[in-house]
Amino acid sequence: MTLEQSIDLAELQADMAFDAYLAAFDEDAHPETLDSLETEALIARSRYDDLRSQGLGH
To answer: Hey, CA dihedral for 32, 20, 18, 8, is it positive or negative?
Structure first.
């Protein structure tokens, strides 16, 4: 997998994680579920940001 493909995949995963968090929030999910989904979204966004910054350095 190329760096560009990895960046695209990380962006997709970050978007999906954030969408899952928003959907759970809209459904008034249990606070623990919201915390877990928020953490997943933040980790996915961080992974995307890290890969993107690597890509900009090349």
So the answer is: positive
**Are 6 and 43 within 8 A, CB to CB?**
no
Q: Where are the domains of the chain?
A: 1-54
The strand ranges marked E within the chain are none
Global pTM? 0.85
Distance CA 2, CA 16 (A): 21
DSSP 53: H
Tens-digit pLDDT profile for residues 1-58: 899 999 999 999 999 999 999 999 999 999 999 999 999 999 999 999 999 999 876 5
- DSSP one-letter code for 49: H
